[in-house]
Amino acid sequence: MGKNLGIGKIRQERVSLSSPFDDLPDDCIGNIISLTSPRDACVAASVSKTFKSTSEFNSVWEKFLPPEYSSLILESQVSTLKKELYFSLCNNPVLIEDGQKSFWLEKASGKRCIMLSARQLAITWGNSPQYWQWISIPEARFKKVPELLDVCAFEIRGWMNTRILSPRTHYSAYVVYKTRSGCHGFRDLPIQVGICLVGQKATKRFICFDESADRIKRWGRRELMKSKEREDGWIEAEIGDLFNEIGCDEIELSIIDITSPYWKRGLIIQGIEFRPVKKLW
């Protein structure tokens, strides 16, 4: 009985402990939280009742939203709490620039993420219906995506201005794709990829759209960026990474088959995705 009373007393003392922030005005605490990050704001909400209430302020979450957020939301969302708008932009990518790009926010940091549609890529023979066809599929973000029917020369290039990305941020770029059941010509084929700022030299790497389980490959010594299946059912392979300093440069990228003389088919390209490199917290 005495032991239980002792535990109760300790708990009561812990509850009664006050935070030095309790004496600050709520607006001041809210301003401090808004200078951190969305992840830190959520952590702060679990620290004390004071932080929990102030971390919900619209003024806090509006700092985490992009300046043009009002153009990215539905008219019915105008009166929605800013915290809810923030997580809506994290979980529900929106189409921008006439449906040519997909935009969303990284949940932990609020950094911008972008997927460049295949329509904005230069695909060799991409507008020739005997080689590529543009199709509509429900799982794609964009109205139409290209499906490879039959080509020998496989080459995709793209360009994008870094203004649309978050400045002073390290990004990785990924090609997002699917393969048809009749995919042919890509099995264990090294595809050279590269990305850089225009005027700089790109670091060349290799990916494989259709990799077998064989351990020994003719090109085993080359650096291979592994593909992985995503939660949305697509597959992604990393092209490379770059640091966006101030957001006024041009990015160029390439995805090229440089070895195979054989015809290829059965590949669907959704686009090129740019995401901040995840930090180890």
UniProtKB/TrEMBL annotation:
Domain F-box: 18-64
SUPFAM superfamilies found in the cross-reference section: F-box domain
InterPro entries (UniProt xref): F-box-like_dom_sf (IPR036047), F-box_dom (IPR001810), PP2-like (IPR025886)
PANTHER family, sorted: F-BOX DOMAIN-CONTAINING PROTEIN
Protein name as it appears in the record: F-box domain-containing protein
Organism: Brassica cretica
